[in-house]
Amino acid sequence: CLLCFSRSPGAGLEGLFRFVECSMRQSGDGDAGESWGPPVMLQRPYSLDVSAQLLRTQAFIDGRWVSAASTFPVLDPATGEEIAKVSDCGTMEAQDAVNAACKAFHLWKNHTAKERSILLRKWFDLINQHKEDLAKLITAECGKPMKESIGEMTYSASFLEWFSEEARRVYGDIVAPSAKDRKILLLKQPVGVASIITPWNFPSAMITRKVGAALAVGCTVVVKPAEDTPLSALALAELSVQAGIPPGVFNVVPCSREKTPAVGELLCTDPLVAKISFTGSTATGKILLRHAAGTVKRVSMELGGHAPFIVFDSADVDKAVAGAMVSKFRNTGQTCVCSNRFLVQSGIHDAFMEKLAKAMDAELKFGHGSEPATTQGPLINTRAAEKVENQIADAVAQGAVIVRGGKRLEGSFMQPTLLSNVNTDMQCMREETFGPLIPVVKFNTEQEALAIANASPVGLAGYFYSRDISQIWRVAEQMEVGMVGVNEGLISTTETSFGGIKQSGFGREGSKYGIDEYLEIKYMCLGGLSL
Asked: Looking at 142, 255, 336, 428, which residue is catalytic?
């Protein structure tokens, strides 16, 4: 559950700064082979060298920095060391934020589209100016390698740029009437106060993707960031002030895991809140939907995924391997659109497995995210590592073979793992992993692959590789997902719609459609005209 994901500090610091010995490769019969690269030493965590203005630890409500009665720790997931103590907001602070957003809404919605556009653009410019410091915050609190954190900040800023432009393109309609004495207009208006509940794996981009659209059309927001990663949200709040966003338009209420259920419930049930946007697990999304039903709120949900990655005999194997690497191991497998279920056709299976194993050996390196060479940081906490560990154990118990990795390392580090001889009954094929695990199922026919891919109750993203143009059209249309990558493992971009089908949620973010999530359509009939 991304909303209530527990924090577990893991092993003490004394053990964290020892050499971490990589485990042995496993041959097909389970015998130890050669060692997988040199041992990796976890460095003592780097000093969080960011601008003091950006390292904020209080709540941000109605344009003011507000302390709560207590605090909660934010931990470096690579070491378990405390980075900062952040105000632990409860329902009182959340209610204050909702009230402030409601008051500000009546002023913000009357700003012209051009005025809102200019302020969003200033916010975008400030994020780019402070990109490196903001990336350091991401790496510190969620463990992401610095190169990926810089990439996230570019992605995060792009949504403010995009929606600053879309703000001036919210068009209504003039409809031809059936009666001569009437004029019919369809107007688009902001829904009101929006509760924005975001996950830890993209602690900046998941906020701007929602907030950019909301503010562009005149909505105001209350952001509840994940308890693991509040610092990025608070830094965005500081830059919103510098950009000139008025008080009450953008509010941030960080809180601990213990207070999250109560705060989340208030943000989903308060009658002043008109809209809820949530990114997180399907289980948590269902809870929030039940909360929202009482006051019939507008809701958009980007929920869990379990993406299939299909490699057909017609595929370019090298490109498929490259796509698998970027799709699976970005953020150490902790993305909602990363590939989870790998299906490889029998004619190409062995070549794919051999090349993928070599790519893993050559390209993946453990370490603290602040180290330039690191490609694989920690999982967010030890509970996340335990989940991956349990999926591997379940698969092996049912006959899967460990080709690479397979072992838990110190704290929340997990070896990137490649499994062969996988079947669809295994836990890793039925549940989203959110970690660096590649289970590979061998299949024979296109129909068989589609049946396995579509058997999941969720449908966020899916990927496949093929050079058969007829097959590309057939498979792309039949895959039951909201987003399809064809010969491409990295598909997220500002200009396109992001969202899923089935139990992966509803609504879309990004693109020209993302702005519609924060708009109501009002029909206006002007009658009694003498024409």
From this structure: 336
What DSSP character marks residue 372?
Answer: T
Q: In this structure, what DSSP letter does residue 283 have? A: H
Quote the Cα angle for 459-460-465, to 5°.
90
Distances, alpha carbon 401 to alpha carbons 31, 37, 393, in Å: 11, 20, 11
Q: Compute how many other C-beta atoms are within 10 angstroms of the C-beta atom of residue 155.
A: 17
Which of 227, 302, 410, 432 is catalytic? The answer is 302
pLDDT in tens, 458-509: 999 999 999 999 999 999 999 999 999 999 999 999 999 999 999 999 999 9
The model's pTM: 0.90
Q: Distance (Å, rounded) from C-alpha 264 to C-alpha 216?
A: 24
The alpha-helical segments, DSSP class H, found in 37-169 are 91-108, 113-129, 131-142, 146-166
Q: Which two tokens stand for residue 65?
A: 């920095």
Active site residue 336: yes
- Of the candidates 257, 237, 259, the residue with the CA atom closest to the CA atom of residue 248: 237
Domains and their CATH numbers in the chain: 59-303+508-520 (3.40.605.10), 307-493 (3.40.309.10)
305-316 pLDDT per residue, tens: 999 999 999 999
Grouping H, G, I as helix, E, B as strand and the rest as coil, residue 134 is: helix
Cβ–Cβ < 8 Å for 411, 381:
no
Residue 450's identity, in one-letter code, is L
